[in-house]
Amino acid sequence: MGRLEGKVAVILGVGALRNMGQAIAQRYVREGAKVVLGVRDEAGVKPFADSLGAAVVHCDITSEADLKRLMNTAVERFGRLDIAVNASGATHFAPFLEEQIEDLRRITDIQFIGTFQFIQAALRVMADGGSVIQISSVTAIALLPNHATYMATKAAGDLVVSAVAAEFGARGIRVNSIAPGPTADTPMAAPLMANPTAREQRRSATPLQRLGTADDIAEAALWLATDENFITGQVLQVNGGRAIHRLQ
Fold this sequence. Notes:
Helix content is 44%, strand content 14%. By secondary structure, the protein is of the alpha/beta class. Helix 1 crosses helix 8 (214-225) and helix 3 (64-78) packs parallel to helix 4 (101-123). The chain is globular.
């Protein structure tokens, strides 16, 4: 029997081929979970969803109505919601004095307000003993040049996770973040990883001497989703030790 047999999971952020959200969805299905995918491009994700036997719901993390429909679909179709994973995000960088208010608002809407709304929507329907998982970033504590907005919103999301974990622990609901570092195989990291020099710099600066992968994050998300752990309100640094140096 799989480690998630009988559990129902919602995953947001699976729109790009081979991204972390897709790796998590694949891992969950292999372990027996029923999965509902929240996506902005239903047609584009349909082949992936069909390969897993997963349900698909249109969902934009900035829309409260979309998030409510996503969570309710899981309950209506499968009778419950046990796991909610937010793997959505928006890459963005700019020198501090060149940052534009439009970009501040866009990234904040996705990575702070969106995170807040996602967790709210999940908790309104989640079964006691469930697990909420937020994909954060090592940059919430490890400085990366020209990423002030990205880093600040990821850090804010981690603080929301801590606050919610304290409030909902009495229901047995675990709320945690996973903080990846540079990854070798995800679409968001692809432009950086295409540069051999940049790729090698990041590998050599990682104490475990290799770059992370989407599967590394999926394994951590599997463990946090099971009932086999006793952890809540934490940021799990799944980045080969990059967080130790606090500098990218």
